[in-house]
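Standup notes
- DV: blocked on the single-chain target, sequence here:
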Amino acid sequence: MKRLLLTLTLSAFIATSCQGPKEPYNDYSRDLQNAYQAITDILVHDIFSPPVAARVYAYSGAAAYEVVAQSHTNYRSLAGQFHEFPTIEPAPTDEHYVPELASLHALGVVGKALIFSEDRMQAHMDGLFEKMSEHHSDEAIAVSRDYGQRVAEAVLNWAQGDNYNQSRTFTKYEINDDPMRWKPTPPDYMDGIEPHWRNIRTLVMDSAQMFKPVPPPTPSLDTASKFYKDLMEVYHTVNNLTPEQEAIAQFWDCNPYVSVHRGHVMLATKKITPGGHWMGITGIACRKAGADYGTTINAHLRAATGLFDGFISCWDEKYRSELVRPETVINENFDENWTPLLQTPPFPEYTSGHSVISGAAGVMLTGVFGENFAFQDSTERVYGLPDRSYESFTAASDEAAISRLYGGIHYMPAIEIGVSQGRTLGAYLDANLTTYTGNE
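- DV (later): unblocked, structure below
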């Protein structure tokens, strides 16, 4: 018996000794992109509104980025840059510590806390760290996840102060009898989404009103008025769409509230949000550029910052002007059977959300990857749509904006002024948010 035990002990020792070091690993950038994709897939499944989805992207990215900032001197902390962002404890000096593991863990913890289908995010992270166990020691994984957990908890505590939870109890949007004010639209006549989003704490902007656009044209059915001409432009454009215009509209639809009615049954057709589309573009750009982990999280954080503050700026104006959608005016005054190509989203018209957030995100990504960064956008491939190619982020944001005219859901002033609003905001964010310093 003693001989058997000795043999087993020696065998175990020899087996352990022969394992050798773990295989080196350096595909963290793709792991980060996959983690963001997991968040996007869950946001689609859970049907998050565009502004709330942007909150998830921004806060999970802030946690992942802050780990990197605390681990490398060439990245600057968000403390003192994002409003009320806490001072985060320094990264461990333990020799086993792996910043990328800590960062990925922080992203997963915050993402899981902010979505509904927590089990889906947990499953993704479990799979990720099971893979990591093939390349890292138990000590490395433990010390890295421990630090990532602490950073995530600090970010989640900070998130509690942004007025989001309080806004869940605020009053619903009140419909007014004024025919030129927004009202719910077919086919579901949903309540106005997030009418109090202006009360959410901004990240870098001084306030929701910082980039307040000029008011929209005065609503009027006078045939000489600008509003009437803008309305007729929508009507005639949709009635005479070219195949290319229709393809553009469908590619940038990005409406998580689309539904299909069959008799008395309503089926939700789940789609990515416009912010999710831009996060997808960010991942595509990172892959094309061969970006390292630091550049990848930096790009995602900066894009998400543009989305987050962009939605606050846009929603502030939407629920100030409360402008009626084209579908409502056309149905009530000219053509009761007219329908836009795309389903009208459930919130006021001015300014265009796509225009604002695409303008802001495009500027932020240009700041990371440069002007004239050409790319092929495959984000909508999962929804059966062909890829589209762009010569720059500016070109992509221009197309995202004009797609709303082709879809029949926005007048041109909301598009043109929305683009200006978003790009002005983006330029401010790009100048006032310092992430990569190059000082390591």
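- Follow-up: Residues 98 and 144 are 6 Å apart (CA to CA).
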